[in-house]
Fold MarR family winged helix-turn-helix transcriptional regulator.
Amino acid sequence: MDRSIGFLMGVTYRKLSNLLLQRLRNYDITPEQWSVLHRIYEQEGTIQKDLALRSGKDKPTTTRILDTLEAKGLIKKQPDASDRRSTLIFMSVKGSRLIAETVSIEQQVIKDATAGISDEEHNLLIDLLLRIGDTISGISDQQHE
């Protein structure tokens, strides 16, 4: 297990997530909620299906997170006038303020976590993770055909 990519990625993800959780504690938001809120911030008015895809989450998880964000007053949902089956997601003023106050916290967590690697290694790591993700998606897509 000490050399298993899946195991090591899982352990590292949990460590990063816990560090971000600790640093976001005063904002009453989890890293999972924060990442979805940040995706909304990046592209307001997105539909829930696209948001789930861009967040790397399944539909039920995305629905649960959006319901929580809405209950906290961080987002607003609106029916899509052109497709009644779709819901558009927008930031509230409170949500925008929270992202503005916390984006530097997330950036500092990444900076702290990658302090021991060079910029070149950091970029290589990002490229490798993206390639692994794309490979897994391709395998998954083939299995669903």
